[in-house]
Design goal:
Strand order of the largest sheet: 9-2-4-5-3-1-12
Structural class: alpha+beta
CATH topology: BirA Bifunctional Protein, domain 2
CATH class: Alpha Beta
Radius of gyration: 20 Å
Largest sheet: 7 strands, mixed
Distance between the termini: 38 Å
Number of helices: 11
Strand content: 15-25%
Helix content: 25-40%
Number of strands: 12
Number of domains: 1
Amino acid sequence: MPLFKGVASKAKPSKAIKYITNPKKAAIVVTHALDDSLDYAAQFADTQSLFGKAKSFGNRKYYHFKHSFDPKDNVSPAEASEMTEKLASKVFDDYEYIIATHTDKAHIHCHLIVNSVSFETGRMLHLNNDEYAALKDLSNNIAVSHGYSALDFRKAAADRISSQENRVTLKGGTSWKEELREVIALAVKECTAIDEFEAFINEYGVEITRNTEKTISFKHPQKQKSIRGEKLGADYTKEAILNELEKSSYRNGSATEENDGYILRKRRGRYYHRQLRAGAAGMEASTAGTQRQYIGEATASDLRSEFKSDESDDGLLELSETNKNRGR
């Protein structure tokens, strides 16, 4: 039974990439259309620069998805990685991406970070509610093809869901309250202390506006007003969050420091598009001593004529950088 969630980020991807590829967490790391000998975040930026996209602070830089599997299904890290690869290759084949399969928690889960700009066309990646729901359906279909059950993500949440939220959920979309729940739920699994928890949700543009001994309030990056944790449900109160952080601390303390099964797999043909882009731009680019081969005759203007600019910011929750000194 897979759970697929995603958010978009306006921050630079270096911190997120460093987090997901940490060998103490990741058992398998797979990349697409990237050179493993070079910095991944720099290659994302290279693609964006080539097409003149994602230039301003307010533009999306990458998408971060999490593909989780129920411990009861006993999915192996290799199979989790394979199912996530199948999903990514069907939907994001024209985009650079990184898949990291984490085994440091009780449940196997994969992180998928995708560049917001296509290396083929320069088109900005944009997902509306229907497209996001289609991704979740695809995740279910792949799981079923591997002999696992599907998750009914259209079922209304039990935690104080409003009629308006229910209408969005039934359409397969994600309301802003549900986006808060998803970010908080992810944070309590990944963090072990309240300050670490706050820094984590800040990376997603979520702010803690009130934090007392018994209460906590959050502000969605696209909303003006805050909402108390108890309004989101019983799992989002100050007490519940502290309990989950304590559990995470215990689990992390029991985990091994090194991951002996760390694997770095490579996909065939991953260098082709990067070489083609260097040729298309008419450059003999060299990075970290690696010379890119000039193999194409097309010009950058030829490629740009193939797409239309799309810098709209609706769709998934946009990650905004609240600390101006962070990620610059």
